[in-house]
Amino acid sequence: MAFSFELVKSHGDARAGVFHTPHGDLLTPVFAPVGTQATVKAVSPRDLADLGASLVLSNTYHLHLRPGSELVREMGGLHQFMRWPKPILTDSGGFQVFSLAKINRIDDEGVTFQSHIDGSRHRFTPELSMAVQENLGADIIMCFDQCPKPNERAMVEAAVRRTQAWAARCREAHHDDHRQALFGIQQGGIYQDLREASSEGLKQLHFPGYAIGGLAVGESKSEMYQTLDTCAQMLPDDKPRYLMGVGAPDDLAQAVLRGVDIFDCVLPTRIARHGAVFTPDGQINISRMVYTRDERPIQADCDCYTCQTFSRAYLRHLVKARELLAHTLLSLHNIRFLIRHMEMMRRAIFEGTLEDYVQAFLERYLQAV
Amino acid sequence: MAFSFELVKSHGDARAGVFHTPHGDLLTPVFAPVGTQATVKAVSPRDLADLGASLVLSNTYHLHLRPGSELVREMGGLHQFMRWPKPILTDSGGFQVFSLAKINRIDDEGVTFQSHIDGSRHRFTPELSMAVQENLGADIIMCFDQCPKPNERAMVEAAVRRTQAWAARCREAHHDDHRQALFGIQQGGIYQDLREASSEGLKQLHFPGYAIGGLAVGESKSEMYQTLDTCAQMLPDDKPRYLMGVGAPDDLAQAVLRGVDIFDCVLPTRIARHGAVFTPDGQINISRMVYTRDERPIQADCDCYTCQTFSRAYLRHLVKARELLAHTLLSLHNIRFLIRHMEMMRRAIFEGTLEDYVQAFLERYLQAV
Questions:
Q1: What are phi and psi of A364, to 5 degrees?
Q2: From residue A271, how far is each of A229, A248, A329, B357 by CA, in Å?
Q3: Considering only CB atoms, which chain B residues are within 8 Å of A76?
Q4: What is the spatial distance between Cα B230 and Cα B235, in angstroms, rounded to a whole number?
Q5: What is the ipTM metric for this complex?
Q6: Do the chains contact at A39 and B329, CB–CB below 8 Å?
Q7: Of A17, A75, B118, B313, most Cβ neighbours within 10 A?
Q8: What stretch(es) of chain B map to CATH 3.20.20.105?
Q9: How far is B300 from chain A (nearest CA, A)?
Q10: Which residues of B touch A320 (CB under 8 A)?
Q11: Per-residue model confidence as pLDDT tens digits over A192-235
């Protein structure tokens, strides 16, 4: 098997593992920066590798619309196209179809929608999502699912049923398990029994990995953590567990404690483009007046290029002057902050000190700056 | 003296030299990328150094308005603020005052204008330009001058007179020649006698370097080259000669042949932001349909990160998808293209083959692609 998951160390529900892929090993828990359009915004692959990034996520919906997955396949696949030699994960397109596009029709067969770029009409089905993701050639690919609002029970029930039916069709349509590992996606909103039903259904399909979908989409943090209390443990121990779209530093800590292995989120690069950066004392906005003459780096003990090189005063100037370099430099720091956070948690799992690390981290991070 | 110019090798009118500055040696002829707001747009200082850049130009007008030169001084000066440890040149602010701002009044004393950012009212005088440039702390600073349209003789005559009077006041106001070398600026448009008068006046003031201003501002290329035929040789042999605002690859070649040592231009980074790149076969726009499936780099024999790493197809995708990384990657290539062009010309001066290099370069560069 090209793919296998080694659970190297457990500590409570938390896990440290190695997920072997054709493009190298992922040391879990791991955070994946998002490269929506085959590029992590404003960050070159060279700089991304310097930050210690291993896994990158790219979006099937966006690449299907532009430049098209056939073109990416002709150019040698996504690794070759964007020059990221390490593992890549693509989502199914489902989340963007439901959140970005104008939906024309949704039925058990699939979804007809209009492109957010030019209004052109498209149709996604589980089978098409598989074909597009096979063209893209990521290491980890995802079942086409329906992600409902997390706390409207009737809709969540319907989404669980449809997601299960679509998962079976994706499993059927996807053939080459050695080249690409297809993950099933658990839905069920904030309802434990629906999460259970979803997990049981997916497990029948024997996926090489499982995602937790439908969280961080509108519910409260305490609802998310309560759901995670049980839903991660419903998934097989011997397969990686991927919590989709979660990347706030406190959420990462809470989810690692509860047994999640893989994460992705646009947060570090998106907030960077608005001048916001992570620090151990919480998120700050570097454009604030108070940083005008601040000669300190964003974070004194950060090893990223930005913190090793530039003052807050200079970064503030770049943000205020709307300079492109601001996006790059703040993104570098934010990505490094999350990757180091994961590295620290992995080490703490080995050392049996994860609760201490998380408690100390949260106390400092969540206090008012 | 902290500053001195060694003329190492001449070939015809062309010169290879070394300009010693407190932040290191400039090997001339040299091209300076422009960092208008204390950043070369979309390029980090780390990447800029990798490209072989030595001199960077920054704009006094922009930094005076934002973040203010006092702030830059308090933060340790421009080298420290933007983290560029090699030589920096600042212009006088004159060119931007006359081209970007709304002028309220211009008289022999100075210029009153409104900021292009917020409409606030400001006044520049030769003395203020010196004070601002001393705050910024660049190695090479420029006299406050008036840059007229190059072919309206009466206006050019008046500008030469005013530029000379202002140069004398700048020379008087600037004291520390060891920390910062103040260059005089020759004006005179396309008129040989006015260029001569301007040069003679400036030489009385014994500057450590001389700029040629008022070219590449609307005249034809042949007018520019004809003017350069004589105006560079009017300036002292033993001081560096700086042609302001010129950076087209063919113009650089023509000006080096005619004895110019230093250049700056926004061209490589500005055209990059519109998808355009230099190649030995002329400028191309990477967003063209024809590059959709082009797996070649921009330039096969280019040693920049972009050409060593990415296909035209990928770069085209980034431009079409309006990704920030496009600006960075195309800027890296364009800057490297010009810096290598200068390196090749310097070598050709030593080898006595400059005419051959320039002829071969121009024949290929100026042919239709």
A1: -75, -45
A2: 28, 11, 12, 49
A3: 295
A4: 10
A5: 0.97
A6: no
A7: A17
A8: 4-265
A9: 17
A10: 66-67
A11: 999 999 999 999 999 999 999 999 999 999 999 999 999 999 99
Residue-wise pLDDT for B233-271, tens only, equals 999 999 999 999 999 999 999 999 999 999 999 999 999
pTM of the model: 0.98
Contact B82 A314 (CB under 8 A): yes
CB A341 within 8 A of CB A301: no
CATH 3.20.20.105: which residues of chain A?
7-265
| Residue B264 annotated to the active site | yes
Region of A257 please: left (phi>0), alpha (psi -120 to 50) or beta: alpha
What six digits make up the tokens of A329?
């430099």
Whether chain B has a CB inside 8 Å of the CB on A293: the answer is yes
In CATH, what number does A7-265 get?
3.20.20.105
Pairing outcome for strands A14-21 and A24-28? antiparallel
Q: How far apart are CA A218 and CA A183, in angstroms?
A: 24
Overall CATH class of domain B4-265:
alpha beta
Q: A161 in contact with B at a CB cutoff of 8 Å?
A: no
- The pair of three-digit structure tokens given for residue B11, joined into one six-digit string: 């070939």
For A77-96, the DSSP string reads -HHHHHT--S-EEE--SHHH
Q: Which among A46, A75, A293 is the nearest to B313, CB-wise?
A: A75
